[in-house]
Design a protein that fits this description.
Largest sheet: 8 strands, antiparallel
CATH architecture: 3-Layer(aba) Sandwich
Shape: globular
CATH topology: Beta-lactamase
Number of helices: 13
Number of domains: 1
Distance between the termini: 38 Å
CATH class: Alpha Beta
Helix content: 25-40%
Structural class: alpha+beta
Order of helices and strands: HEEEHHHHHHHHEHEEEHHEEEEEEH
Strand order of the largest sheet: 2-1-13-12-11-10-9-8
Radius of gyration: 23 Å
Length: about 400
């Protein structure tokens, strides 16, 4: 009996010793990650950076550095950024929009192989006649994976000059579409890959036509509310005072895609930039904590069924470094960079296949990352568009590598 008690005592002591050692590793690891976050924030010139990490079913661990406003001589001690501060997430909005379309497919309301013309027969004319004539044979899948060939409105100098003159202007969706269909397509549908925000502006109109709701209401009903993403909003108009008060102010410039790329300068306050031009291509604001919950839920089958998740992950070649033929489907074991349905795929050791999205608006960058091998989701946001602040992926990979070196993780 006494031997059994001593054995039990030894096991208990051993257990608490292990817990103590684990806690020590955990604290040291978090300190190392916080150090990287602070270093990135200071070197990038961004006023703030926020990162959240979620491994498996564990609660997200959060890291913050900086302030919600740029420090100036008039305001030398601006408010500190918190995990509840809102950031524009730019093109990560496309990931949500693609998931919504795939939910509608799972419900039998649409198939992604239908053409725009076929959806018009089902749901009425949801596109202007001229646009329909130009794009009728394009499939929903081609819109989602950027193989439609449709002109990208964010490459249009005249339109962006108009936006630059008045960033708060509420843009008319028909004017944006007119700019798109007035330009020749990059290629015939399915014959190449070209990133085009216009594709997802159209997707937003399709979501409205099918659900008979605004995009905001449609996303809220089947994504935001079920996942309890209480700090995530789709806002394609001027911010309300309540939302504006919660925003980490973003600093940057309106610049043409491919020209005037981010500089080392922090730029001017672009927080009130009206995202009506972006629509379902980029009109969301969120927190990193919500974004890691979203990323984990999406890739673990809690948002769309297995069939639709597989469709989302069927990537096409983006033509980077001539690794493959642009627009062609990639094999599941390909190491080439690819684009699925609202998500990007890449391969890197030791993680293998990874999924990510970098979103950007004037004044903000945001990134989500998923490693299937390590069941690891990471999200990061920052509130300035500088040369260094856009390099979020190297920071995320460095963080993920720190985690993988510790078998226990957090």
């Amino acid at each position: 009996m006494q031997r059994n008690i001593l054995l039990l005592l030894w096991l208990v002591i051993g257990m608490f010793t292990s817990i103590s050692a684990y806690a020590k590793v955990n604290i040291l690891l978090q300190k190392e990650i916080q150090k990287s976050v602070v270093s990135f924030q200071k070197s990038s010139g961004a006023p703030a950076i926020v990162m959240s990490i979620k491994q498996g079913d564990q609660v997200a661990i959060n890291f913050v550095s900086g302030t919600t406003l740029k420090r100036t001589w008039k305001n030398w001690t601006p408010p500190k950024v918190t995990i509840s501060s809102l950031f524009q997430i730019g093109s990560i909005t496309k990931n949500f929009a693609a998931a919504k379309i795939l939910q509608l497919e799972a419900q039998g309301k649409i198939t992604i192989n239908e053409t725009i013309a076929e959806t018009i027969k089902k749901y009425g004319q949801w596109l202007p006649t001229v646009a329909l004539e130009a794009w009728s044979d394009i499939t929903i899948k081609q819109l989602l994976n950027m193989t439609s060939g449709i002109y990208n409105v964010t490459e249009n100098k005249e339109l962006l000059t108009e936006v630059e003159k008045d960033p708060t202007k509420q843009m008319n969706i028909n004017d944006i579409l007119h700019t798109a269909y007035s330009h020749r397509p990059y290629f015939k549908p399915g014959k190449g890959y070209h990133y085009s925000d216009t594709n997802y502006i159209i997707i937003g109109l399709l979501i409205q036509a099918i659900t008979k709701q605004t995009v905001s209401a449609a996303l809220s009903a089947t994504i935001f509310k079920p996942l309890k993403l209480t700090n995530t909003y789709y806002i394609d108009h001027a911010y309300s005072p309540a939302i504006y008060q919660r925003m980490a102010h973003g600093y940057g410039f309106v610049y043409l895609v491919g020209e005037g790329l981010p500089t080392s300068k922090v730029g001017k306050d672009m927080t009130r930039f009206n995202l009506s031009m972006a629509g379902a291509a980029g009109a969301m604001v969120s927190t990193t904590e919500d974004l890691v919950v979203w990323t984990h839920a999406l890739f673990t089958g809690k948002v769309i069924p297995k069939q639709q998740l597989q469709e989302m992950q069927q990537a096409v070649c983006v033509g980077l470094r001539h690794q493959c033929e642009s627009g062609k489907p990639l094999a599941s074991d390909s190491h080439a960079v690819g684009y699925g349905l609202g998500i990007s795929r890449f391969y890197v050791k030791p993680f293998g296949e990874c999924w990510t999205y970098l979103g950007g608006t004037p004044g903000y960058y945001a990134l989500i990352f998923w490693s299937p091998k390590y069941n690891l989701a990471i999200a990061v946001t920052t509130n300035a568009t500088t040369i260094k602040s856009q390099k979020l992926l190297p920071l995320v990979l460095k963080t993920a590598l720190l985690l993988t070196k510790q078998k226990q993780g957090f």
